[in-house]
Amino acid sequence: MVPLTNQTWRQHSACTGVDPDIFYPVSDEEAEVAKAICSHCPVRQPCLEYALTTRERDGVWGGATERERRRILRQRRKSA
Length: 80
Ligand code: SF4
Hints:
- The protein is globular, with a radius of gyration of 12 Å.
- The protein has helices at about 30-40, 45-55, 65-80.
- It is mainly α and about 80 residues long.
- The chain has one domain.
- Iron/sulfur cluster (SF4) binds next to helix 1 and helix 2.
- Iron/sulfur cluster (SF4) binds near residues 38, 41, 43, 47 and 62.
């Protein structure tokens, strides 16, 4: 797990300089553009873990929408 104080991964994000609105789509369908960027991001995993840990409610993080992150958290709770 990435410590919350360690956010050096942000320096390597593929979304640096990209319009942030892309990462806050109004529907899951509109999230595809952001997810495509995340798919080749070198820090996808720490980004996702950060969002899961901080319970980020909005936006696409680590290639996952808010709905998908809730699903991941449910699956982790079941397998814990
Ligand atoms: S995984 Fe996506 S949201 Fe996270 S840093 Fe990379 S491009 Fe940005």
